């Protein structure tokens, strides 16, 4: 009797699931989901990129999968990405609100907030504040070059040896953001600074990892003491630290002064008063954490990828150094404007961004209204996965889609060109607001380091492994960086 009852309940549950997961009329096709998990069991949860590509080969550039009982549409290739994120930018500008990353952040700030008035105001505020702090000007260059001096000092201690660059570049990228948001930097050996960086790295790996996918797919598991709870704890610890910094700066805040981003936000709160409830302290903290997490992780991973490839492609490194020497001559420091006279170095940096594929699945979108895409009907609220990796490696868009080759960004005359398929920062209304800062950081840091140092693959390091470690932001596998001092031209 009990066995029959269990079977009956299971049968009803299965029927309920099948009813809930029936694809809407004219919805993009996709594989048949299974109860509870949807299509997750058909993906390698540690790195689903290859499986998503195989599904695209079978179902086309737009197809659907189920995350638990929630349908998601996966976009592949330049045409689909442009049609959705650029041509229909408003219709695809939303954010899903029932995922682990949203629950961790409370869906506030600018990265994970849903499309609407609060998001628009905070994005506009963040962009204006970055411009006010000198983005694209000499003052921001000096901030970046000042941190690059600390990188150089660390590398000098490893001349003639090899070192692990992972912490070094995370430290530097994080400090540049810290100098903008609260006006100070940390010593690299600072105990709390290192704990904060470790927490941010772990959360990044978890955000698109197996446990996050299980959290998203099976709501019944969310309150269990499973590893995804570490993501909430880690975010909370960084949040408490930033709240403490905000409290300290509030004590010394003087209206209309702008020492850093916290001052800017406090000024905005006073200006808005009670007329705009969008600006409050909880929103400010999440905005600061958005900039801290996103700006540190992506830039540091791209820097490590760039050095991995130039170190293992010495002819590329030498050509960049020759160009840098010719352009800079006796100048003490590089400036961002120098990029216009360095087409090959520019091409190398962009190629490093392409192969780094730092945010392979972007940040998930959601449709803000019922819409159509390439002949399919997409209901309002549908989760959208932009497979940016498929664009950065699309064979029809690149001369050398599967190799590291700066020629992907050079025309027949050797001039720098940026193909339309270059989308490491996504595209449209939800494109990364830190793109301008990241471009300055990558150029100034890499040019400064290549001018002073030669990077060599250590003799005892074996064969280079370029396979990235998947996460919401991808990173190169740990490696050792061989460091040598360069002789100055003419010596």
Report on the structure:
A four-stranded mixed sheet has the order 1-2-7-4. The radius of gyration is 24 Å and the shape is globular. The termini are far apart. It is of the alpha+beta class. Helix 8 crosses helix 10 (229-252) and helix 10 (229-252) crosses helix 12. The protein has a single domain, classed as Cytochrome P450 (Cytochrome p450). 50% of the residues lie in helices and 8% in strands. GO terms for molecular function: heme binding; iron ion binding; oxidoreductase activity, acting on paired donors, with incorporation or reduction of molecular oxygen, reduced flavin or flavoprotein as one donor, and incorporation of one atom of oxygen. Belongs to the cytochrome P450 family. One of its GO terms (cellular component) is membrane.
Identify the CATH class.
Answer: Mainly Alpha
**What class do helices, strands and sheet pairing give?**
alpha+beta
CATH architect. name: Orthogonal Bundle
Tell me what portion of residues adopts beta-strand conformation.
Answer: 5-15%
| Poorly predicted segments | 1-19
Mean pLDDT: 90
Counted beta strands: 11
Radius of gyration: 24 Å
């Amino acid at each position: 009797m009990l066995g029959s009852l269990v079977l009956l309940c299971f049968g009803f549950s299965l029927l309920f699931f099948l009813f809930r997961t029936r694809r809407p009329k004219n919805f993009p096709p996709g594989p048949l989901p299974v109860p509870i998990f949807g299509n997750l069991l058909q993906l390698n949860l540690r790195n689903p990129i290859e499986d998503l590509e195989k599904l695209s080969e079978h179902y086309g550039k737009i197809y659907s999968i189920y995350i638990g009982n929630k349908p998601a549409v996966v976009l592949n290739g330049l045409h689909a990405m442009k049609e959705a994120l650029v041509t229909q930018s408003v219709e695809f500008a939303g954010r899903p609100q029932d995922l682990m990353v949203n629950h961790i952040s409370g869906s506030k700030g600018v990265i994970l907030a849903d499309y609407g008035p609060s998001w628009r105001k905070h994005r506009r505020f963040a962009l204006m504040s970055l411009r006010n702090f000198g983005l694209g000007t000499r003052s921001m260059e000096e901030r970046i070059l000042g941190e690059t001096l600390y990188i150089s000092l660390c590398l000098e201690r490893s001349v003639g040896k090899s070192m692990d660059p992972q912490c070094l570049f995370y430290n530097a990228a994080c400090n540049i953001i810290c100098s903008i948001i609260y006006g100070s930097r940390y010593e690299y050996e600072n105990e709390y600074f290192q704990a904060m960086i470790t927490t941010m790295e772990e959360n990044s790996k978890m955000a698109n990892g197996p446990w996050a996918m299980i959290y998203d797919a099976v709501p019944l598991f969310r309150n269990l003491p499973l590893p995804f709870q570490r993501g909430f704890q880690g975010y909370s610890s960084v949040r408490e630290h930033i709240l403490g910094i905000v409290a300290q700066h509030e004590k010394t805040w003087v209206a209309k002064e702008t020492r850093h981003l916290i001052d800017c936000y406090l000024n905005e709160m006073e200006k808005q008063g009670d007329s705009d409830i969008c600006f409050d302290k909880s929103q400010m903290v999440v905005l600061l954490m958005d900039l801290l997490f996103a700006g540190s992780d992506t830039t540091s991973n791209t820097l490590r990828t760039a050095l991995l490839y130039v170190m293992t492609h010495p002819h590329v490194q030498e050509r960049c150094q020759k160009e840098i020497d010719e352009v800079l001559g006796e100048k003490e420091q590089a400036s961002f404007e120098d990029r216009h006279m360095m087409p090959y170095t520019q091409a190398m940096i962009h190629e490093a961004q392409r192969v780094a594929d730092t945010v392979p699945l972007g940040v998930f979108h959601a449709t803000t209204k019922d819409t159509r895409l390439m002949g399919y009907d997409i209901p309002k609220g549908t989760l959208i996965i932009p497979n940016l990796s498929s664009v950065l490696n699309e064979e029809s868009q690149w001369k050398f889609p599967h190799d590291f080759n700066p020629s992907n960004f050079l025309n027949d005359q050797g001039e720098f060109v940026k193909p339309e398929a270059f989308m490491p920062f996504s595209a449209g209304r939800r494109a990364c607001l830190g793109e301008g800062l990241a471009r300055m950081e990558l150029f100034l840091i890499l040019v400064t380091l290549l001018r002073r140092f030669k990077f060599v693959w250590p003799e005892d390091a074996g064969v280079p492994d370029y396979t990235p470690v998947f996460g919401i932001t991808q990173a190169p596998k740990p490696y050792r960086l061989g460091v040598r001092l360069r002789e100055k031209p003419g010596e």
